[in-house]
Amino acid sequence: MRLISRSRLRLGAAAVGVAALTATASTVALSTTAYAGPAASAHTASSTAASTVRDVCGAAKAGYDRCLAEVRTDVHEGLGVRGKAAAAVTGHAAALPAGFGPADLQAAYKLPSTGGANQTVAIVDAGDDASAEADLAVYRATYGLPACTTADGCFTKVNQTGASAPLPADQGWGIEIALDVDMVSAACPQCHILLVESDDASSQNLAASVDTAVRLGATEVSNSYGATEGNGIQAYAPDYAHPGVAIFASSGDSGYGIPIVPAAYSSVIAVGGTSLTKDVSARGWSETAWGGAGSGCSAWIDKPAWQRDQDCPGRMTADVSADADPNTGPAVYDANPHDGTPGWGVVGGTSAASPFLAGVVAQAGNPAKFPNASAFYSPSAAAGLNDVVGGANGSCAGDYLCTAVAGYDGPTGMGSPNGLSAF
Predict the structure, then answer these.
(1) What's the predicted TM-score (pTM) here?
(2) 148 domain residue, yes or no
(3) Domain residues for 193?
(4) What is the pLDDT along the chain (423 residues), one digit of tens a residue?
(5) Count of CB atoms situated within 10 Å of the CB of 225
(6) What letter does residue 42 receive in the DSSP assignment?
(7) Distance between CA 25 and CA 59 in Å, rounded?
(8) CA separation for the pair 326, 403 (Å, rounded)
(9) Helix, strand or coil, per DSSP, at residue 379
(10) How many whole angstroms separate alpha carbon 294 and alpha carbon 252?
(11) What residue spans of 101-255 are helical by DSSP H?
(12) What is the CATH number of the domain that holds 65?
């Protein structure tokens, strides 16, 4: 990666419409030092109202990243196992919690329920979630997924050096961690899960944790966090480039604007977001661009040869997408009382889409196919992707930079999974 020339930088700024972004009241406040997170007015009308959603992580200071999960504040479904498995505890089955479960997501994206047993999906997050394994057990029991525990070798939790102890202090990312492990489980129930907990949310420690995940044998790595691109971002690019291992990162939850890293690194698969709903179509589901999904034209990172969109001279995000809208989000279980109201909730953000798609690649068993996102841009991948058309994540006069159009677009990339053939 090299810095783009000053003239290219000016073109990149024009491409994201900085003047328009700063001139309208409906835009996100953009920082040159840390990703400031979503503002309610940045989302389209289809997004969850500000009064019913909150960011799991607050604004990050310079040199730090923030997690990108968004949790519904109007959904509190209580504690404990649900569904048929509840009978073992209460003597009778209980209704499934609100939000999409694994069977819903597998149906929406035509995914098998088995496969990936030889894959290890790593999740990189900041700080410890003491209840992560116990919460995962509740989620998987509720939906009839096989157990995934430390004892059976399926689940592993380590610190950023790869040791099981000491684990770092809680950094307030518990809901993010629960979302991540639940989404890997939904996409690939037989995959192994490796949770690497960095000491804190500094960009340096998160990057080091990615290296640790790869060293410990991860075949896919998901990163549901980011910081606004700017001077110095190239320092951590090598930590997100591991040929043979598919590296995913959320594209952001503030709509169209300045890209975030690690998603903008050319070795990373940048994951955008959709709004997913059931309907009566032949597919049985419909998708549009989620108004909060991150997209943008990099002023710092060169355009990869495999990315050929015309209006952005640098790296464009996103590459591919999946459900991310909190209004249409998955059910997630987090019983940690430090994370707000404990128990079942509905969580969204591109934080949901990144681990889910890491699980899809693991399900297909082809991580070496993705040293970057180039495979998704191949004509042969088209049949294996749902081309998402409709919806926008900002104002760009209908351009693909912020509007879901036929073919490539910023909010949803090349589309969402339609089976495993593209993965």
Answers:
(1) 0.90
(2) yes
(3) 6-417
(4) 444 443 344 344 434 433 333 333 333 222 333 323 323 333 433 344 446 999 999 999 999 999 999 999 999 999 999 999 999 888 999 999 999 999 999 999 999 999 999 999 999 999 999 999 999 999 999 999 999 999 999 999 999 999 999 999 999 999 999 999 999 999 999 999 999 999 999 999 999 999 999 999 999 999 999 999 999 999 999 999 999 999 999 999 999 999 999 999 999 999 999 999 999 999 999 999 999 999 999 999 999 999 999 999 999 999 999 999 999 999 999 998 888 889 999 999 999 999 999 999 999 999 999 999 999 999 999 999 999 999 999 999 999 999 999 999 999 999 999 999 999
(5) 31
(6) G
(7) 20
(8) 19
(9) helix
(10) 4
(11) 102-108, 132-142, 174-187, 203-215
(12) 3.40.50.200
CA angle 387, 412, 401 (to 5 degrees): 110
Q: Please give the angle made by the CA atoms of 239, 130 and 353, to the nearest 5 degrees.
A: 50
Q: How many domains does the chain have?
A: 1
Distance set, CA 282 to CA 111, 304, 389, 392 (Å): 16, 36, 16, 24
Instruction: Judge whether 1 lies within some domain.
Output: no
Which residues on adjacent β-strands are paired with residue 100?
Answer: 330
Task: Name the strand (E) or helix (H) holding 271.
Answer: strand 269-278
Residue 422 placed within a domain: no
Residues written for the chain: 423
Residue 423 lies in a domain: no
